[in-house]
Amino acid sequence: MKKSIETIWKEGFLKNDPLVAPKLNNLYSQKSIDIVDKFRRMYKINRVAILAFAFIILPLSFLVKIPYMGIGMFVLFNILAAIAQKFSRSLNKLDKTESSYQYLISFDNWVKEMVSTNTKLSRFLYPYVFITMTGGFWFGSIGGDIPGNTFLNHFIERFPDSYLVLGFPLILLVVAFTIISLLAYFGGQIGNFDLNLVYGRILKKLDEMLADMDELTA
Amino acid sequence: MSSDFYTTFILPYSGIIIKICRAYTNTQEDFEDYYQEVCLHIWRSHASFREQSEWSTWVYRISLNVCLTLLKKKKKHNFVSNSLPEEAIEDSRSFVDESLNQLYQAIRQLSDVDRAVIMLYLEEKSYQEIAEIIGTNPNNIGVRIKRIKERLKKLLDEKVN
């Protein structure tokens, strides 16, 4: 090597035409498609997982003798998968030929609609899960006995002064009703928290991109 | 990003960005992507510039950080998709000066951090500035540069022979 690397560097750039900067255009075009595609993949995995879980829990619940819980959850997961499928279809309809800004706005609107449905649904979903789980265990079978009856007998033996409504301790009804009410009241927030756990990062990125693009187009 | 911002704060330093982006990419398409990404990062984070260093130093830092991050992502993707490693792909672009082409090719065979160090050295940054930009101890920079230059010399000699 005759020349030092410092000389090659200096002379090399002197001999060349001035360095031409590439034009800046469509800064976000690929990114906007990428973020929606990533979300679409995650949404599909989630949907498949819900369905898989539905078909696992059903036979399993019969095996461990809590079939009501299994049937209840199976129905719930299928409804959730059907709703997700409906949303997935509308997500696939987003027009990729639009400008990246418009494409992201359409996606953002889709996300808002999905979150709003999820919030409304969660107000029923969590109380339903509680009722199904409790009912499932209550009317299940452990060693030939019905766990609900066994528990009730123990409870009445321990607290014989309990006020009964149709043979059922009032205090237990109050506790169950309180839990169901709380789940219905906070269901939306729990649902959104749940959604954030799965999609939080990507949705935050979407917000940042939209804010940037708002500024870029201003 | 307003065209004023681009003309005032980025365009005069585009040479720096171009040189760095070229060292970390093999194709014109990648190069343009990296360049755009660096410009975008400069624009997005210019509010956090505290004037504790020169604007050009800051541009170097952002350019290197963005290139290293993008390269890392690309390597991860290549690993997953089982593609060829970055170094195995021939550079599809060329400068008029053949020695410069060879030097760039040799630089691209260095590790990611060594590439950053030598680029800054060739741009006549002081050891202190290099250490500041890379985030290392200035005492080690001299030794590192000596080692990198020896490696580059060897790679260039191999090319000639």
Describe what this molecule looks like in 3D.
- The complex is a heterodimer of chains A (218) and B (161).
- Chain A has 6 helices and 2 strands; from the N terminus they run αααααββα.
- Chain A is elongated, with a radius of gyration of 29 Å.
- With 218 residues, chain A is mostly helical.
- Chain A has a two-stranded antiparallel sheet.
- Chain A has one domain.
- By secondary structure, chain B is an all-alpha fold.
- Chain B has 8 helices and no strands.
- The longest helix of chain B has 27 residues, at 55-81.
- The relative contact order of chain B is 0.11.
- Classes of the chains: A mainly alpha (218), B mainly alpha (161).
- At the A-B interface, helix 1 of A face helix 2, helix 3, helix 5 and helix 8 of B.
Largest sheet of chain B: none
Order of helices and strands of chain B: HHHHHHHH
Helix/strand-derived category of chain A reads mainly alpha
Give the class of chain B from helix and strand content and strand pairing. mainly alpha
- Binned, the helix content of chain B reads over 70%
Please describe the biggest sheet of chain A, giving its number of strands, its sense, and whether it closes into a barrel.
Answer: 2 strands, antiparallel
Shape of chain A: elongated
The helix count of chain A comes to 6
- Quaternary class: heterodimer
User: What is the highest CATH level, the class of the largest domain in chain B?
Assistant: Mainly Alpha
Mean pLDDT of chain B: 80
Arithmetic mean pLDDT of chain A: 86
Give the CATH superfamily of the largest domain in chain B. Answer: RNA polymerase sigma factor, region 2, helix turn helix motif
